[in-house]
Amino acid sequence: MGAAASSASASAPPRTVTFTLDGVGKVYPGVVAVSDVTLSGYAGEVLAICGANGAGKSTLTKLLAGQERPTSGRVIVDGYDGEITTPSAALDAGVLLMHQEPVIVDTFSVQENVWLTGLSAAGRRRPWQLVGGRDRADRTRAALGVVGMREVDLGMRAGRLGPGPRQMVALSRSQVNEHRVLLLDETTASTTEEHFKDVEALVRKEREAGATVVFVSHRMPEVFALADRIAVMRNGSLVDVVDTADTTPDEIMTLMIGEAVMALEPPEPVAEADAPTLLEVRDVSSGSASGISFSVREGEIVGVYGLVGSGRSSLARSISGHQHRDTGTVRVRGHEVNPRSPRAALRQGIAYLSEDRRREGFVKDFDNATNLTLSTLGAYSTHGVMHTRRERRRVARLVSDFGIKGGADQLTSSLSGGNQQKVCIAKALESEPDVVVLDEPTKGIDVGARLNIYQIVRGLVERRKAVVVVTSEAEEALALCNRVIVLRDGVIAGEFVSKTSTTDDLTRTALGGEVQ
């Protein structure tokens, strides 16, 4: 396990405590984020922390990582005498934090980013310069290999990486930094099902080396695949800590939101005779997508499911003017459209929701009001002069209709992931498009907010929109869509009616196997 193995002792006896949160609380002005939490982690275990948005799970992780100072209580790391009140103290104690949004310097190379954590402690020399020549490249390659990135170009600028690979590069730092406790704070939120296998391999290696892995997540399949114990947070308090073997996903979700979660039934297929075709895609090639053809009727939700490299995002971006289309035609209400930009696509009736909402979904320095009306500024201005009162009335209505927490003046970047996504969806729909393309609409969103997003998307059926949902989750595709198109290696490998199909049908097709 490289450097990590030297600090996570494989010979640690069972139930050896590595850290304890002793009555820890955190209060911000007017908000109790964490209240009187007592919790311990043990060597060689995976402790999952689950909770809905705003439950306090990320704040708890930041307290353990020294990024926040507790208002009450203590953070104790076994073998460390000092207080854990700063990130540097946590690192000295052997606590390593991996964020939901990977800390990547785009202008640095991949190799430089692998060694980034040690930058502040390296003095005048950069940490990647402390190990020389071939040994440095070999250690970097070995670290990246643990997370499935062994073949990446070490000298490539990190800014060229997609969301999933960026997170994998960040996670590889665990292999070159000594630690006893590894905190994974929603680190799988921006990755796909394939990358989760690499995360699983990393966690297994950490556990075998005797480290404590704290896995913060809202994805129940991942939690139950990895965790030995599950700590559930709700409204800042620790509700319960249970052994994974003694509970079920439904029980954990009920603890998270305080009520039973009802599973969504797959929607009925749209009868062809009842609805006109709004979107026609014919022989479209772009990026890794090749010769794709399909159509979507009014009031229909069509899913596009596939693994990494299948062409699903290339298809979505080419339809909506975000990516150049090499061949093929796209028609909206029978009229051919060829948008050269997202703005042109909006004018031609196509709205797009990016899978990377923080980079493409909203402007982080703008408040909710400004972000919500970005796509329709012309409706609130005359000769460049904004009608602020009219804009604010509309914003108030949108905040109410979409259940967005926080007022018009609150920064969108300060909202939870679910509320940020509501802002992005509301903004996209403000132009009243005929076609709505949603790329990974629930990425990084907990179960409660996810159901809320599903309700919003299904509401588009009543508004007679044609909806395309691009997703890497087979369960989501079947729960949300009338039909699902499966892509593999850039082409359509199969099409399924959700009501009569299973996740096994989709995943087998995506992997190239035979449907049972």
Number of domains: 3
In the CATH hierarchy, the third-tier topology of the largest domain is known as: Rossmann fold
Low-confidence stretches: 1-13, 121-125
- Total helix count? 18
Pfam family, one: ABC_tran
Protein name: Sugar ABC transporter ATP-binding protein
Region (Disordered): 317-341
InterPro entries: AAA+_ATPase, ABC_carbohydrate_import_ATPase, ABC_transporter-like_ATP-bd, ABC_transporter-like_CS, P-loop_NTPase
Q: Would you give an account of this structure?
A:
The chain is built from 18 helices and 21 strands. Residues 1-13 and 121-125 have low confidence and may be disordered. It has helices at residues 3-7, 57-64, 87-93, 110-114, 133-146, 163-171, 193-208, 220-226, 249-257, 312-319, 342-347, 357-361, 368-372, 388-401, 417-429, 447-462, 474-480, 503-511; strands spanning 17-28, 31-42, 46-50, 72-77, 95-98, 181-185, 212-216, 229-234, 237-243, 277-286, 289-297, 300-306, 327-332, 335-337, 350-353, 381-382, 385-386, 435-439, 466-471, 483-488, 491-497. The protein has 516 residues and is α/β, with parallel strands linked by helices. The chain has a 6-stranded mixed sheet, with helices on both faces. A 6-stranded mixed sheet has the order 15-18-19-12-20-21, sandwiched between helices. It folds into 3 domains: 3-106 and 178-257, Rossmann fold (3-Layer(aba) Sandwich); 264-349 and 434-516, P-loop containing nucleotide triphosphate hydrolases (Rossmann fold); 363-430, no CATH class. The radius of gyration is 24 Å and the shape is globular.
